Amino acid sequence: MRNEAETRAGLIDPVLRELGWTGDLVRRERVTGSAHRTAPMGGRYDYLLCLPAPPGKLPLPVAVLEAKKEDEPCTLGLDQAKGYAKRLHVRHVFSSNGHRFMWFDTFTGLTHGPFPLADFPTPQTLRDSFERELKIDLASPFAQSLFQPYHGGELGRRYYQDAAIRAALEKVARGEKRVLLHLATGSGKTYLVCQLLHKLAQAGQITHALFVCDRDELRRQGAAALHNVFGGEVAMVTGADAQKNARILVATYQTLGLESDEWPRPPGRAVSSDEKQQSEPTFLERNYAPDFFSHIIIDECHRSAWGTWSVVLTHNPNAVQIGLTATPRRFLESDDADVQADLSVTANNIRHFGESVYEYTILQGQEDGFLASCDIVRRDVKVEGEETVEVTLADGVKIVKERYMPGQVVKESGPRDANTGMPASAEEVADAYSARVYGQRLMIPARTKAMAEDLFQQLCENGGPLQRTIIFCASDRECDEVAIYLNNLLVLYGDKQTEDYAFKCTAKSDADATDLITKLRKSPRTHFIATTVDLLSTGVDIPRLQNIVFFRYLKSPITFYQMVGRGTRLDVETGKTSFRIYDYTNVTRLFGADFTVKPPEGEVGEGEAPAEPRKPPIVLPGPIPVHITPAGKYVLMERNGRETPVPLEEYEQMIAEEVKRQAGSLDELREQWIARELREPLLEHLPGRRNAALLLRQLHGLLPCDLYDVLGHLTFAADPKTRSQRVTSFDLRNRDWVAAMPAPAAATVHEIVRFFVGDGGIEELDNPLLFRTPSVRTAGGLPALQMLSADPGEVLWTIKQRLLLP
I need a labelling partner for 80 at 20 to 30 A (CA). Which of 129, 334, 621, 732 fits? Predict the structure, then answer.
């Protein structure tokens, strides 16, 4: 019986060719873009089938075909292929054992088959289905953007970016004007915008396009990226120049006159249509005629709820309007018809743009290796006089609410005015304070100091104090306090590197915020820890960031996900593949929460605590005891379709059980690990897939070890060895075996073994270019191994086996 590779080559490939699936209409096992993985997208698809394109254009993916061994049921690969189809955004799913095939049609939801492989559909059959079901004429001018090649070729794009772009263009091709894309922070939305506009422009559909964002830094980044694609056709809009002659315009809401200088705008209901008409014309309305723009892209469109920027859409009603967000907001229904009308554009992303045509979450990005994975360290903070109330929600989830009951403790501590330091009157002290307003209305220096000390100790115990970190605080005052405490702690720690170690980075910082962000991002010797309220929550790209810290209470999952997104970017230069969340306020309970919030009647921002009150907050300067204790370590994984923090111990047990199910002993694990075709399925079956082993290696301080040692240690209590130790052991144990070889072969084996020390470990020896590397070629290379009686592949297999011996 044929194995899977033989089934593809001997049974499936000939039939596909006979039916017209030839050349670039068939793609195989495409791997792109991952900084530290060899198999992103949760595995390798066998066949991606594409429709023919006009000459010089790009074929259009429409189907996935998963192959299995000929002695296995043809149904076996169908569920696996469905997963690939969803991620790749294709409409037809097939699985085959080389003799028969199954067909799942996502248009109808029906599964058909089994059928003889000779009856597999032709390209024309799938084209007819695509056009009929999506109501798109692929020969029409509106559909030509689907076939346009990528600027700079396909090598730079990632599979989900290609899928998201096609999903957006499909909707535009059938004449719809509003599109929503939901992609995690750090997944490359700027690249996506550039390529999306490029395809539309190449298809002749753009007259003027507008890219709108809400930060100057994002405007600069966007303009630079678009300039690389469109050159001089791109311009940044400024208050002094509307740049009407440019084809692609990049602007902030503020520049267009759609937002006040302060963001978000003060609380209150949305501005009504009548009020808009009575107000002065905006910069947008003065400089651009109605429908001046054929295409408008709104970056971070979830942030629109508290502003009036929707005029950019209502002023260009016939434009194609594309919203980008990592957290698509859906508002709860309101009984007030006027409120709902006002919110229909400015607040409710889903209502205006429609459901997301494509979704790519943080967890998907982490599993694929395109985003840094995270582990969570929760810390319990208990202040004397604080009352804990446990509430069980309808779905069984328990949350903890804290209230500070002033009572005798407050009286003894002598509450004071935060500005003057004068004693506060009884009227100025509330009967109770919720934990959400700690640091705003009630300042407890003892609590802030205790959290700063505990965080500093955590950093020292996990890599040292000089780690790039963002701390989200409740107020500017708390930002100042935390920065002072941390700088003092570094001095007491004895580190000479004390200049601007911790610093406040808010709209009220003394220094320019842009300069501070640049130093946090790039400075080699200063500016390691930024304390902020929300200035760094969006629009800040700091790949080297190692920690996200929450001293601030949150109730909005939208705000929370945006803040967490600061840490998800990879950094190839420093080798960063993961980051850590230190949670002092139980905000990580918001992982997996719906992005649904109440209408902004009397609310502020994203549903957060109100801004600092007009009256100065009350300070409790007395010796109030504060206790901080561990609340557990957690790992993010999917449960019931949601991102959920799972206790590290439970996560490890799940992984160990799965490894035992796949390989019943350490010897069996070793045999599977040697063969790539067995190793990859084992990793992909782990909870969290390959990401699980990588994260555990990080958490247990086993970075110098191959993943085989990580899983062997966790599952079978084997003593882990570093990659260097295994190479040294190999040299000692196999001295006679290597010495018996011809000198060129012995030298080649010696060089091959050295590759195991690399970060990839055993995977370094799977590299098809291994024998072309200069050191191996100089030693003798493939011809040298061919001098041995065994096949070179067998020699390589033996090297792997001997490297992994106990």
Answer: 129
